[in-house]
Amino acid sequence: MCRKSLLRIPPSLRSLLMLLLLQLLSPSVFSLPSQAPASPGAADFNAGMAHMRAGNPDRAERSFERAIEKEPRNGTYHLWLGNAVGQQAQNASVVRQPFMARRIRNSFERAVALDPNLLDARDGLIQFYLAAPSVMGGDVNKAREQQAEIAKRDVVRGHIAAANIAWHGRDTVATERALRAAVAAAPDSAAPVLSLGARQYNWGRPADAFATYEGFLRRHPQNIPVRYQYGRLAALTGENLTTAERHLRGILAVEEWPPNNFSPSKAAAHARLGDVLRRQGKRDEARAAYNTALGLDANLQLAKDGLRALN
């Protein structure tokens, strides 16, 4: 296909492609594992993971490709090649996006073929099949097939996948039912609680979202991801600000927390604290929080926007 014909991609298709490429980076897909055990491609894979953590997906892509050359039947390597391409696709040109989307899909499909228990790859395929147009392989029935396979292996993730498919069909009742089933199946897991709270806020029900987070925090008062999301929700709504400030200061008092696919960075937590303080009229404290965030991450847009709002 020539460059000229690619530039005639309809706007609706371009928006679908961008949605797809952003969804492939959702927390359920983009989680950072520990280093791979010693094997022929392990050194390259571990180098790729280091590049991903440093925010260099282009370098990570090359490292994962080298790992695959040495171990072509390692599904995890193919999964992370897809993730690396997906992260780059966020800022890719319209010309490159269709090719990158196809490569992401192929990487995830290969990962699942090699290791049927790679649920992150199955999650990635669900997002692809839901977001991509049919001419590029989108197919809700294929998404349902992947959800059924996930449910066989992990009940909670199966419910969450079912919720994503229901939401794609704009069925809010089925979406909430699936997420509540996930919460009931794993009451000590933050993942379904975070998903349910986010949906409730997006549906214009912030009070329900607060209640969802509060119910979990009564059982797990020190949970960092849920405390952070409580603070984020307060910053967005202007409600429950005193409690939110307590939660955000509480997690920032923790010297270090292990990275995972739900925990915020220290910089983000400082920036959200700045939002909550600004909402309360504590301008000097808010400015200090934003500046601390930028000291940790000079490119954090959240903190930059907060300082701009103060001014």
Keywords:
single chain; disordered N terminus
Could you please describe the fold and organization of this structure?
By secondary structure, the protein is mainly alpha-helical. Helix 6 runs antiparallel to helix 7 and helix 15 packs parallel to helix 17. The chain has 17 helices and no strands. The N and C termini lie far apart (49 Å).
Layout of helices and strands, plus pairs?
Blueprint: H1 3-6, H2 11-23, H3 42-53, H4 57-70, H5 75-89, H6 97-114, H7 119-131, H8 140-153, H9 155-168, H10 172-185, H11 190-202, H12 206-219, H13 224-237, H14 241-252, H15 266-279, H16 283-296, H17 301-310
Tell me briefly what this model is:
The protein is mainly α. Helices cover 71% and strands 0% of the residues.
**Shape summary:** globular
Q: Given the structure, what is the number of helices? A: 17
Q: What would you call the structural class?
A: mainly alpha
How many DSSP-defined strands? 0
Order of helices and strands: HHHHHHHHHHHHHHHHH
How much strand?
Answer: under 5%
Q: Distance N terminus to C terminus?
A: 49 Å
Radius of gyration computed on alpha carbons? 20 Å
Major beta-sheet overview:
none
Helix content: over 70%
> Roughly what is the average pLDDT, rounded to an integer?
88
Flag low-confidence runs. Answer: 1-31
